[in-house]
Design a protein that fits this description.
Elements lengths: L1 H16 L7 E3 L4 E3 L15 E8 L8 E12 L2 E14 L10 H4 L3 E13 L3 E11 L5 E13 L6 E5 L5 E7 L4 E4 L2 E2 L1 E4 L6 H9 L4 H5 L6 E4 L1
Antiparallel strand pairs: 1-13, 2-9, 3-8, 3-10, 4-7, 4-9, 4-13, 5-6, 5-8, 7-14, 9-12, 10-11
Length: about 230
Protein backbone atom coordinates (compact mmCIF):
# COMPACT_ATOMS: atom_id res chain seq x y z
CA UNK A 1 0.00 0.00 0.00
CA UNK A 2 2.82 2.40 0.95
CA UNK A 3 4.68 1.59 -2.26
CA UNK A 4 1.58 2.29 -4.32
CA UNK A 5 1.06 5.59 -2.51
CA UNK A 6 4.67 6.55 -3.19
CA UNK A 7 4.25 5.82 -6.90
CA UNK A 8 1.06 7.86 -7.06
CA UNK A 9 2.77 10.73 -5.25
CA UNK A 10 5.70 10.64 -7.69
CA UNK A 11 3.31 10.66 -10.65
CA UNK A 12 1.45 13.62 -9.16
CA UNK A 13 4.73 15.47 -8.56
CA UNK A 14 5.82 14.89 -12.15
CA UNK A 15 2.49 16.16 -13.44
CA UNK A 16 2.54 19.32 -11.33
CA UNK A 17 6.26 20.08 -11.78
CA UNK A 18 6.01 19.86 -15.57
CA UNK A 19 2.91 21.84 -16.57
CA UNK A 20 1.96 22.16 -20.22
CA UNK A 21 3.80 25.01 -21.93
CA UNK A 22 1.49 27.50 -23.59
CA UNK A 23 2.81 30.03 -26.08
CA UNK A 24 1.92 33.69 -26.48
CA UNK A 25 -0.50 34.78 -29.20
CA UNK A 26 -0.53 38.42 -30.28
CA UNK A 27 -3.51 39.63 -32.32
CA UNK A 28 -3.53 42.84 -34.30
CA UNK A 29 -1.19 44.89 -36.48
CA UNK A 30 0.08 48.13 -34.91
CA UNK A 31 -0.94 50.92 -37.28
CA UNK A 32 -2.79 53.39 -35.03
CA UNK A 33 -3.48 54.32 -31.38
CA UNK A 34 -6.49 54.11 -29.07
CA UNK A 35 -7.09 55.32 -25.51
CA UNK A 36 -10.16 53.10 -24.93
CA UNK A 37 -10.91 51.34 -22.63
CA UNK A 38 -8.42 52.14 -19.83
CA UNK A 39 -6.92 55.52 -20.71
CA UNK A 40 -9.69 58.02 -21.49
CA UNK A 41 -12.81 55.88 -21.87
CA UNK A 42 -14.19 56.09 -18.32
CA UNK A 43 -13.64 59.85 -18.16
CA UNK A 44 -14.86 60.57 -21.69
CA UNK A 45 -16.87 63.79 -21.61
CA UNK A 46 -19.22 62.58 -24.34
CA UNK A 47 -22.25 60.47 -23.45
CA UNK A 48 -21.61 60.46 -19.72
CA UNK A 49 -18.39 58.51 -20.12
CA UNK A 50 -17.67 55.02 -21.36
CA UNK A 51 -19.33 52.11 -19.57
CA UNK A 52 -18.90 49.00 -21.76
CA UNK A 53 -16.17 47.94 -24.16
CA UNK A 54 -16.00 44.77 -26.25
CA UNK A 55 -13.27 43.51 -28.53
CA UNK A 56 -13.57 40.47 -30.76
CA UNK A 57 -10.62 38.39 -31.97
CA UNK A 58 -11.18 36.28 -35.07
CA UNK A 59 -10.71 32.56 -34.40
CA UNK A 60 -8.27 32.23 -37.31
CA UNK A 61 -5.73 34.31 -35.35
CA UNK A 62 -5.30 31.24 -33.08
CA UNK A 63 -3.87 28.05 -34.56
CA UNK A 64 -4.90 25.71 -31.72
CA UNK A 65 -6.54 25.66 -28.27
CA UNK A 66 -4.78 28.30 -26.18
CA UNK A 67 -4.38 28.63 -22.42
CA UNK A 68 -5.05 32.23 -21.41
CA UNK A 69 -4.13 33.60 -18.00
CA UNK A 70 -2.82 37.04 -18.92
CA UNK A 71 -3.78 39.80 -21.34
CA UNK A 72 -1.30 42.53 -22.33
CA UNK A 73 -1.56 45.86 -24.14
CA UNK A 74 1.32 48.02 -25.38
CA UNK A 75 2.06 51.73 -25.18
CA UNK A 76 1.85 53.83 -28.29
CA UNK A 77 2.23 57.26 -26.65
CA UNK A 78 2.59 57.72 -22.90
CA UNK A 79 0.47 59.65 -20.46
CA UNK A 80 -1.95 59.05 -17.59
CA UNK A 81 -4.65 56.39 -17.45
CA UNK A 82 -8.15 56.82 -15.98
CA UNK A 83 -8.43 55.77 -12.33
CA UNK A 84 -11.33 53.33 -12.42
CA UNK A 85 -12.34 49.69 -11.96
CA UNK A 86 -12.38 47.40 -14.99
CA UNK A 87 -14.23 44.06 -14.88
CA UNK A 88 -12.99 41.77 -17.65
CA UNK A 89 -14.78 38.67 -18.95
CA UNK A 90 -14.26 36.44 -21.98
CA UNK A 91 -16.90 34.81 -24.17
CA UNK A 92 -17.19 32.88 -27.39
CA UNK A 93 -18.71 35.04 -30.10
CA UNK A 94 -20.62 34.23 -33.29
CA UNK A 95 -19.38 37.50 -34.79
CA UNK A 96 -15.93 37.94 -36.26
CA UNK A 97 -13.90 41.09 -36.86
CA UNK A 98 -15.68 43.22 -39.43
CA UNK A 99 -19.11 41.93 -38.39
CA UNK A 100 -19.35 42.96 -34.73
CA UNK A 101 -22.89 44.03 -33.82
CA UNK A 102 -23.80 47.28 -32.06
CA UNK A 103 -26.09 45.09 -29.92
CA UNK A 104 -23.56 44.08 -27.26
CA UNK A 105 -25.65 41.15 -26.03
CA UNK A 106 -25.73 39.54 -29.48
CA UNK A 107 -21.92 39.50 -29.58
CA UNK A 108 -21.75 37.32 -26.46
CA UNK A 109 -21.91 33.55 -26.78
CA UNK A 110 -20.93 31.07 -24.09
CA UNK A 111 -19.08 32.54 -21.11
CA UNK A 112 -15.48 31.30 -20.94
CA UNK A 113 -14.17 33.21 -17.94
CA UNK A 114 -14.99 35.94 -15.47
CA UNK A 115 -11.36 36.92 -15.84
CA UNK A 116 -11.15 39.40 -12.97
CA UNK A 117 -11.77 42.87 -11.55
CA UNK A 118 -8.87 45.31 -11.83
CA UNK A 119 -8.12 48.79 -10.51
CA UNK A 120 -6.00 50.86 -12.87
CA UNK A 121 -4.47 54.31 -12.41
CA UNK A 122 -1.29 56.31 -12.91
CA UNK A 123 1.11 56.61 -15.80
CA UNK A 124 0.78 54.23 -18.72
CA UNK A 125 3.56 51.60 -18.66
CA UNK A 126 5.27 50.23 -21.76
CA UNK A 127 3.24 47.04 -21.26
CA UNK A 128 0.05 46.80 -19.23
CA UNK A 129 -0.70 43.20 -18.23
CA UNK A 130 -3.78 41.83 -16.50
CA UNK A 131 -3.31 38.45 -14.76
CA UNK A 132 -6.65 36.77 -14.26
CA UNK A 133 -8.46 33.45 -13.95
CA UNK A 134 -6.83 31.03 -16.37
CA UNK A 135 -9.00 29.35 -19.01
CA UNK A 136 -8.63 27.54 -22.32
CA UNK A 137 -9.92 29.02 -25.55
CA UNK A 138 -10.65 26.61 -28.42
CA UNK A 139 -10.86 28.53 -31.73
CA UNK A 140 -12.82 25.69 -33.36
CA UNK A 141 -15.80 26.70 -31.19
CA UNK A 142 -16.05 30.32 -32.36
CA UNK A 143 -14.41 33.71 -32.13
CA UNK A 144 -13.04 35.13 -28.85
CA UNK A 145 -14.73 38.15 -27.24
CA UNK A 146 -13.27 40.28 -24.45
CA UNK A 147 -15.78 42.41 -22.54
CA UNK A 148 -14.71 45.24 -20.20
CA UNK A 149 -17.24 46.87 -17.88
CA UNK A 150 -16.12 50.21 -16.41
CA UNK A 151 -17.18 51.52 -13.00
CA UNK A 152 -15.90 53.61 -10.10
CA UNK A 153 -14.20 56.47 -11.92
CA UNK A 154 -12.21 58.57 -9.46
CA UNK A 155 -9.85 60.47 -11.75
CA UNK A 156 -10.57 61.49 -15.32
CA UNK A 157 -7.99 62.16 -18.04
CA UNK A 158 -8.51 63.41 -21.54
CA UNK A 159 -6.73 61.76 -24.47
CA UNK A 160 -3.28 61.89 -22.89
CA UNK A 161 -2.17 58.30 -23.52
CA UNK A 162 -2.71 55.75 -26.26
CA UNK A 163 -2.19 52.03 -26.64
CA UNK A 164 -1.09 50.35 -29.85
CA UNK A 165 -4.12 49.64 -32.00
CA UNK A 166 -5.13 48.04 -35.29
CA UNK A 167 -7.40 49.99 -37.61
CA UNK A 168 -7.81 47.30 -40.28
CA UNK A 169 -10.71 45.32 -38.68
CA UNK A 170 -9.27 42.13 -40.21
CA UNK A 171 -8.35 40.23 -37.03
CA UNK A 172 -9.99 42.36 -34.35
CA UNK A 173 -12.73 44.97 -33.95
CA UNK A 174 -14.14 46.94 -31.02
CA UNK A 175 -17.49 48.03 -29.59
CA UNK A 176 -17.74 50.98 -27.22
CA UNK A 177 -20.84 52.04 -25.31
CA UNK A 178 -21.42 55.21 -23.31
CA UNK A 179 -23.43 55.67 -20.13
CA UNK A 180 -26.25 57.25 -22.16
CA UNK A 181 -26.61 53.98 -24.10
CA UNK A 182 -25.13 55.11 -27.41
CA UNK A 183 -23.10 52.28 -28.91
CA UNK A 184 -20.65 52.14 -31.80
CA UNK A 185 -18.34 49.62 -33.47
CA UNK A 186 -15.20 50.21 -35.47
CA UNK A 187 -11.50 49.76 -35.97
CA UNK A 188 -8.62 50.93 -33.78
CA UNK A 189 -9.04 47.89 -31.51
CA UNK A 190 -6.11 47.27 -29.18
CA UNK A 191 -3.21 45.06 -30.23
CA UNK A 192 -3.53 42.28 -27.66
CA UNK A 193 -1.12 39.62 -26.44
CA UNK A 194 -2.55 36.51 -24.77
CA UNK A 195 -0.32 34.47 -22.47
CA UNK A 196 -0.66 31.64 -19.98
CA UNK A 197 -0.02 33.99 -17.07
CA UNK A 198 2.65 34.05 -14.39
CA UNK A 199 4.34 30.66 -13.77
CA UNK A 200 4.69 29.67 -10.07
CA UNK A 201 8.21 29.45 -8.61
CA UNK A 202 9.52 25.97 -7.56
CA UNK A 203 8.78 26.77 -3.93
CA UNK A 204 5.19 27.53 -4.90
CA UNK A 205 4.88 24.15 -6.61
CA UNK A 206 6.09 22.47 -3.40
CA UNK A 207 3.48 24.34 -1.39
CA UNK A 208 0.80 23.31 -3.88
CA UNK A 209 1.80 19.65 -3.59
CA UNK A 210 1.76 19.85 0.18
CA UNK A 211 -1.72 21.31 0.09
CA UNK A 212 -3.43 18.69 -2.06
CA UNK A 213 -5.46 17.58 0.94
CA UNK A 214 -7.17 20.99 0.91
CA UNK A 215 -7.71 21.16 -2.85
CA UNK A 216 -11.49 20.81 -2.56
CA UNK A 217 -11.75 23.97 -0.49
CA UNK A 218 -9.18 25.82 -2.56
CA UNK A 219 -11.13 25.21 -5.76
CA UNK A 220 -14.10 27.06 -4.29
CA UNK A 221 -12.07 30.17 -3.57
CA UNK A 222 -11.91 33.08 -5.98
CA UNK A 223 -8.67 33.16 -7.92
CA UNK A 224 -6.27 36.04 -7.33
CA UNK A 225 -6.02 38.57 -10.10
CA UNK A 226 -3.63 41.44 -10.61
CA UNK A 227 -2.19 44.08 -12.86
CA UNK A 228 1.45 44.08 -13.97
CA UNK A 229 3.33 47.12 -15.23
CA UNK A 230 6.44 46.71 -17.38
Amino acid sequence: MMKRAAILAAMTLATVAAPAVAGTVTVGNYDSGNCYPVSCFAGESYGGGGSLYQQVYTASAFTSPTTIGSVSFFKSSGGVMDSATYDIAFYLSPNAAGSLSTNAASNRGALLSNFGSFSVSGAMPDTLTFDGSRFTYDPSLGNLLMQVSVTGLTTSVSYSSFFQADGSRLQTERLYQYANGETYTGGNALVTSFGAGAVPEPATWAMMIGGFGMVGGAMRRRKTVGVRFA
